[in-house]
Amino acid sequence: MQLPRLRPWEILIALAGAAALVGDALYRGSGSVALAIPLALIACLPLAWSSQKPLPALLATTVGLVVCLAAFQPYHTAIFVLAAALYNVASLGDRRRSLIVGAGARSASKRSAAASPMSGCGSRATSTTRSRTRSSRSTSAPESPHIYTEATKP
Fold it and tell me: Which spans in the chain are helix H?
Protein backbone atom coordinates (compact mmCIF):
# COMPACT_ATOMS: atom_id res chain seq x y z
CA MET A 1 0.00 0.00 0.00
CA GLN A 2 1.44 3.29 -1.10
CA LEU A 3 0.45 6.61 0.41
CA PRO A 4 -0.60 9.33 -2.02
CA ARG A 5 1.88 12.10 -2.68
CA LEU A 6 1.59 15.01 -0.29
CA ARG A 7 1.02 18.53 -1.54
CA PRO A 8 3.38 21.22 -0.25
CA TRP A 9 0.66 23.58 1.00
CA GLU A 10 -0.95 20.78 2.99
CA ILE A 11 2.36 20.07 4.69
CA LEU A 12 2.64 23.78 5.48
CA ILE A 13 -0.88 23.83 6.96
CA ALA A 14 -0.06 20.83 9.14
CA LEU A 15 3.22 22.37 10.33
CA ALA A 16 1.55 25.75 10.94
CA GLY A 17 -1.15 24.08 13.01
CA ALA A 18 1.43 22.20 15.05
CA ALA A 19 3.48 25.37 15.55
CA ALA A 20 0.35 27.24 16.67
CA LEU A 21 -0.51 24.53 19.20
CA VAL A 22 3.04 24.55 20.60
CA GLY A 23 3.07 28.35 20.66
CA ASP A 24 -0.21 28.37 22.58
CA ALA A 25 1.25 25.95 25.12
CA LEU A 26 4.32 28.15 25.52
CA TYR A 27 2.27 31.34 25.78
CA ARG A 28 -0.05 29.91 28.41
CA GLY A 29 2.71 28.07 30.22
CA SER A 30 0.36 25.13 30.54
CA GLY A 31 2.63 22.36 29.33
CA SER A 32 6.22 21.44 28.69
CA VAL A 33 7.71 21.89 25.25
CA ALA A 34 8.97 18.32 25.27
CA LEU A 35 5.39 17.12 25.58
CA ALA A 36 3.72 19.76 23.40
CA ILE A 37 5.85 19.33 20.26
CA PRO A 38 5.27 15.60 19.66
CA LEU A 39 1.58 15.77 20.60
CA ALA A 40 1.00 18.77 18.33
CA LEU A 41 2.78 17.07 15.43
CA ILE A 42 0.75 13.88 15.92
CA ALA A 43 -2.47 15.89 16.10
CA CYS A 44 -1.73 17.95 12.98
CA LEU A 45 0.00 15.35 10.83
CA PRO A 46 -3.30 14.03 9.38
CA LEU A 47 -3.93 17.48 7.90
CA ALA A 48 -1.23 16.70 5.34
CA TRP A 49 -3.51 13.99 3.85
CA SER A 50 -6.77 15.87 4.26
CA SER A 51 -7.38 16.40 0.55
CA GLN A 52 -6.92 12.69 -0.30
CA LYS A 53 -8.79 11.26 2.71
CA PRO A 54 -10.75 14.11 4.34
CA LEU A 55 -12.95 12.14 6.74
CA PRO A 56 -10.18 9.93 8.22
CA ALA A 57 -7.99 13.04 8.49
CA LEU A 58 -10.77 14.83 10.39
CA LEU A 59 -11.24 11.91 12.77
CA ALA A 60 -7.50 11.50 13.41
CA THR A 61 -7.04 15.24 13.90
CA THR A 62 -9.96 15.33 16.34
CA VAL A 63 -8.52 12.48 18.40
CA GLY A 64 -5.11 14.16 18.42
CA LEU A 65 -6.61 17.48 19.48
CA VAL A 66 -8.53 15.85 22.32
CA VAL A 67 -5.23 14.44 23.60
CA CYS A 68 -3.61 17.88 23.22
CA LEU A 69 -6.48 19.53 25.07
CA ALA A 70 -6.09 17.08 27.92
CA ALA A 71 -2.31 17.52 28.05
CA PHE A 72 -1.71 21.26 27.67
CA GLN A 73 -5.08 23.03 27.08
CA PRO A 74 -4.64 24.90 23.76
CA TYR A 75 -8.37 25.79 23.71
CA HIS A 76 -8.32 28.70 21.27
CA THR A 77 -5.77 27.30 18.84
CA ALA A 78 -7.37 23.86 18.63
CA ILE A 79 -10.48 25.46 17.14
CA PHE A 80 -8.52 26.71 14.12
CA VAL A 81 -6.78 23.39 13.54
CA LEU A 82 -10.11 21.58 13.67
CA ALA A 83 -11.65 24.18 11.36
CA ALA A 84 -9.02 23.40 8.72
CA ALA A 85 -9.92 19.71 8.82
CA LEU A 86 -13.66 20.47 8.79
CA TYR A 87 -13.21 22.76 5.80
CA ASN A 88 -11.59 20.01 3.76
CA VAL A 89 -14.40 17.59 4.59
CA ALA A 90 -17.01 20.16 3.59
CA SER A 91 -15.27 21.28 0.41
CA LEU A 92 -14.22 17.86 -0.90
CA GLY A 93 -17.15 15.74 0.22
CA ASP A 94 -20.61 15.44 -1.19
CA ARG A 95 -23.46 17.52 0.22
CA ARG A 96 -24.96 14.81 2.43
CA ARG A 97 -21.67 13.94 4.11
CA SER A 98 -20.85 17.63 4.61
CA LEU A 99 -24.19 18.26 6.30
CA ILE A 100 -23.86 15.21 8.55
CA VAL A 101 -20.32 16.11 9.59
CA GLY A 102 -21.30 19.76 10.13
CA ALA A 103 -24.26 18.80 12.31
CA GLY A 104 -22.11 16.38 14.28
CA ALA A 105 -19.43 19.03 14.78
CA ARG A 106 -22.01 21.55 15.95
CA SER A 107 -23.53 19.20 18.50
CA ALA A 108 -20.11 18.10 19.71
CA SER A 109 -18.98 21.69 20.12
CA LYS A 110 -22.10 22.53 22.12
CA ARG A 111 -21.50 19.55 24.39
CA SER A 112 -17.84 20.36 24.86
CA ALA A 113 -18.61 24.02 25.52
CA ALA A 114 -21.04 23.04 28.23
CA ALA A 115 -18.46 20.72 29.81
CA SER A 116 -15.56 23.14 29.41
CA PRO A 117 -14.02 24.57 32.58
CA MET A 118 -14.31 28.01 30.98
CA SER A 119 -17.97 27.62 29.96
CA GLY A 120 -19.51 29.95 32.52
CA CYS A 121 -16.69 32.45 32.49
CA GLY A 122 -18.14 35.93 32.42
CA SER A 123 -21.83 35.08 32.24
CA ARG A 124 -22.37 35.33 35.99
CA ALA A 125 -20.40 38.56 36.25
CA THR A 126 -22.34 40.09 33.37
CA SER A 127 -25.72 39.31 34.88
CA THR A 128 -24.62 40.60 38.30
CA THR A 129 -23.29 43.79 36.77
CA ARG A 130 -26.53 44.32 34.86
CA SER A 131 -28.66 43.87 37.97
CA ARG A 132 -26.49 46.30 39.94
CA THR A 133 -26.66 48.85 37.14
CA ARG A 134 -30.45 48.60 36.98
CA SER A 135 -30.83 48.97 40.74
CA SER A 136 -28.47 51.96 40.90
CA ARG A 137 -30.35 53.70 38.09
CA SER A 138 -33.67 53.35 39.80
CA THR A 139 -32.55 54.68 43.20
CA SER A 140 -30.32 57.60 42.26
CA ALA A 141 -30.75 60.64 40.07
CA PRO A 142 -28.81 60.76 36.83
CA GLU A 143 -25.49 62.51 37.13
CA SER A 144 -23.68 64.45 34.48
CA PRO A 145 -19.90 64.78 34.61
CA HIS A 146 -20.14 68.39 33.41
CA ILE A 147 -22.32 69.71 36.22
CA TYR A 148 -20.40 70.68 39.34
CA THR A 149 -21.91 71.61 42.66
CA GLU A 150 -20.14 73.39 45.47
CA ALA A 151 -19.39 70.08 47.23
CA THR A 152 -17.80 68.43 44.21
CA LYS A 153 -15.57 71.27 42.99
CA PRO A 154 -11.87 70.53 43.36
Answer: 8-28, 33-44, 54-72, 75-92, 95-115, 123-139
